[in-house]
Design goal:
single chain, alpha/beta, seven-stranded mixed beta sheet, six-stranded mixed beta sheet, binds nicotinamide-adenine-dinucleotide
C-alpha cells in the first residue's frame, strides 16, 4: 500500500505545491511511515496568505456573526460525522490511546467551534459614550469590533487538533481568515479540516493549511509574510521569542502560549487519595505532554511517604501499548527526537543526584512496538531546586517530588521558576487554599482538581509561559480590532 500524501490546503484546494520538498510523517508507536508531507515553500505560503487576504473581501467578509455561527456549527457537526478519519489521523501522528482521542480530543475540537460561535453571538456592543461639545450639542461614541485580518496560526504537536481549533474557532467566529501551520510532527488531522471547511460551505481562502518546519521553512515564512496581520502561536518559549522578533518587524500583534514547569502543592489536610490521583493525572496524562501538566510536586512532610508511595503505584499502574488495545493507558512520546531529549534528562537527574522512585528508562515493549518512542513514567526526589531537572520543562511523564514544612516555603519553591503557566493546590482548608492560590504566580490555578478547562475562561501564562490571554471574551480581544466611531449629533 502506498503511503498517503499529506497536502497543503490553499484557497479551497489540496495541493502538493511547487517546492518539490517532502518530509516523512512517522508514527511514534512503532516508527512506521504514515504519511509523506508536502512542504510549503515561499510560493505556497504566499498563495495561502494572498487567498486569505482576498477571502476577507469576499462573501466571508460580508457575513454577520449569525451567518458565521451557522457555518461554524456545521463545521462542528462535520468533524463529529467524520470523527473516525480524525481519530485515525490523530492516532497515527501521536500514538495516543484510542479512548481519550475518541472521547476527548475530537469532540473537544468540534465543541470549540460551537462555543466560540456562541460567545460571538452573545457579544453586545457597549452603550455609546456621550461627549458634550464645547460650543453646544453632543457627539456619540460607538465601539465597534472588526476582524483583525489574516491570522497566522502556528501549532505544536502535543494536542494537534485541539490546539489548532482552539485558535481557529475564535479567529473565524470573529470574522478573520486563517493560515495554519501545524507541527511538522503531527500534520495529518489539521489537514483534514480543509475538506470539512469546503463541505461546511466556508468560502475558499478563509482557512488554509501549509506544512513545514519552523526556522527557514513554512513557519518562519508565514510569520514574516507582510500580508499577515497577527500571529497566534503555541509552542516552546524559545520559538515564541523568535516568532515575536520576526513579527515585530511589521508590528504584528502576537499571542504566545508557551512552556511551563508547573507545580502542585499538596498539603497534609488534603484528601490524600484525590490528591494522588489528580497529581498522577496531571503528571502522566497524554504521556506528560500537556502544557498544563505537573512536573514539580511539593508535599507537606508529614504525608510525604504516603503520597510518594501512592503516586508511585499510579505510575507503575500505567500500561504502555498499542493505541487500539483497551488495556493501554499510556501512549509513547510524540517522536524519537523528543524521546532523545527526555532520556538526556533521565541521565541528568541521576548525575544531579536524584533518587529514582520509579521509572527512569525505557519500558520493555513487544517486538512490534520496540521501535516506538516509549518511556517509563518516572518520579524523582532529592534534587536541589536549582537543578536542571527541577527548573527546565521536559514535557514527558516525569515529575520531581519534594517535601516542605511550611506554607511560605512551599509557595516560594512553587514560584521559583521562570515560567508561570499553571499550578494546583490540594487542601481541604478552603481559606488556606485560597490564600495560597492568590500568591502563586501562574495564569491558571486549580484548587483540588486539574484540567477543568471551561472554554469561556481566560487562558495564558505569566513570565516565560506567554504573552496575552485567549479563551472566552479574551479571545475576542486578540482576534478583533476595536474602532471608535464618533458621530456628532
Ligand atoms: P515548538 O516551539 O518546537 O514548535 C511549535 C510550532 O512552531 C511548530 O509548528 C514549529 O514548526 C513552529 N516553529 C518553531 N519555531 C518557529 C519559528 N521560529 N517561526 C515560526 N514557526 C516556528 O514546540 P513543540 O515542541 O511543537 O511543542 C511543545 C511545546 O509547546 C512545549 O514547550 C509546551 O509547553 C508548549 N505548549 C504550550 C501550550 C500553552 O498553551 N501554553 C500548549 C501546548 C504546548
Amino acid at each position: 500500500m502506498s503511503t498517503p500524501p499529506i497536502l497543503n490546503f490553499i484557497d479551497g484546494h489540496y495541493t502538493e505545491g511547487t517546492s518539490g520538498r517532502t518530509f516523512e510523517d512517522r508514527s511514534p508507536v512503532d516508527n512506521r511511515l504514515v504519511g509523506i508531507v508536502h512542504e510549503a515553500g515561499p510560493a505556497e505560503v504566499d498563495a495561502a496568505v494572498t487567498a486569505a487576504k482576498q477571502a476577507l473581501e469576499g462573501p466571508w467578509g460580508r457575513m454577520n456573526s449569525t451567518e458565521r455561527a451557522a457555518l461554524l456549527n456545521r463545521v462542528a457537526d462535520l468533524i463529529m460525522e467524520q470523527k473516525d478519519a480524525f481519530i485515525a489521523a490523530e492516532i497515527n501522528d501521536t500514538g495516543k490511546p484510542y479512548g481519550p482521542t475518541a472521547q476527548g480530543e475530537i469532540p473537544r475540537s468540534a465543541d470549540q467551534f460551537r462555543v466560540f460561535a456562541q460567545i460571538m453571538l452573545d457579544e453586545r456592543a457597549p452603550e455609546p459614550i456621550e461627549t458634550p461639545l464645547p460650543r453646544g450639542g453632543r457627539a456619540l461614541n460607538y465601539e465597534k469590533r472588526v476582524p483583525k485580518g489574516v491570522i497566522a496560526t502556528i501549532c505544536p504537536w502535543n494536542l494537534p487538533l485541539i490546539m489548532a481549533t482552539w485558535k481557529l474557532a475564535p479567529a473565524l467566529a470573529c470574522g478573520n481568515t486563517v493560515v495554519i501551520k501545524p507541527s511538522e510532527e503531527t500534520p495529518a488531522s489539521v489537514t483534514l479540516l480543509g475538506k470539512v471547511m469546503n463541505e461546511a460551505g466556508i468560502p475558499p481562502g478563509v482557512v488554509n493549511v501549509v506544512h513545514g518546519f519552523g526556522v527557514g521553512s513554512a513557519g518562519q515564512l508565514l510569520v514574516q509574510h507582510k500580508g499577515v496581520d497577527a500571529v497566534t502561536f503555541t509552542g516552546e518559549t524559545g520559538s515564541g521569542a523568535a516568532i515575536m522578533q520576526d513579527a515585530a518587524r511589521d508590528l504584528k500583534d502576537v499571542s504566545l502560549e508557551l512552556g511551563g514547569k508547573n507545580p502542585a502543592l499538596i498539603f497534609a489536610d488534603c484528601d490524600l487519595e484525590k490528591a494522588i490521583q489528580g497529581t498522577a493525572m496531571s503528571a502522566f496524562h497524554n504521556c506528560g505532554q500537556v502544557c498544563l501538566g505537573t512536573e514539580r510536586v511539593y508535599v507537606e512532610r508529614s504525608i510525604f511517604p504516603a503520597f510518594v508511595e501512592g503516586l508511585k503505584q499510579q505510575a507503575e499502574g500505567l500500561r504502555p501499548g498499542s493505541p487500539f488495545d483497551k488495556e493501554t493507558t499510556l501512549g509513547p512520546l510524540s517522536s524519537l527526537k523528543h524521546r532523545d531529549k527526555a532520556l538526556t534528562y533521565m541521565q541528568k537527574a541521576v548525575e544531579e543526584g536524584a533518587e529514582v522512585i520509579t521509572g527512569g528508562g525505557v519500558p520493555e515493549m513487544p517486538s512490534e512496538l520496540v521501535d516506538g518512542a516509549w518511556v517509563q513514567p518516572t518520579i524523582w526526589t532529592g534534587l536541589p531546586e536549582t537543578s536542571a531537572v527541577v527548573q527546565e520543562e521536559i514535557f514527558g511523564p516525569f515529575c520531581h517530588v519534594q517535601p516542605f514544612d511550611a506554607e511560605d516555603e512551599a509557595i516560594a519553591m512553587a514560584n521559583n521558576t521562570e515560567y508561570g503557566l499553571a499550578a494546583a493546590v490540594w487542601s481541604q482548608d478552603k481559606e488556606k487554599a485560597g490564600r495560597v492560590a492568590n500568591q502563586l504566580k501562574a495564569g491558571v490555578i486549580w484548587v483540588n482538581g486539574w484540567m477543568i478547562r471551561d472554554l469561556r475562561t481566560p487562558f495564558g501564562g505569566f513570565n516565560k509561559s506567554g504573552i496575552g490571554r485567549e479563551g472566552g471574551r479574551h479571545s475576542l480581544e486578540f482576534y478583533t480590532e476595536i474602532k471608535n466611531i464618533c458621530v456628532v449629533q
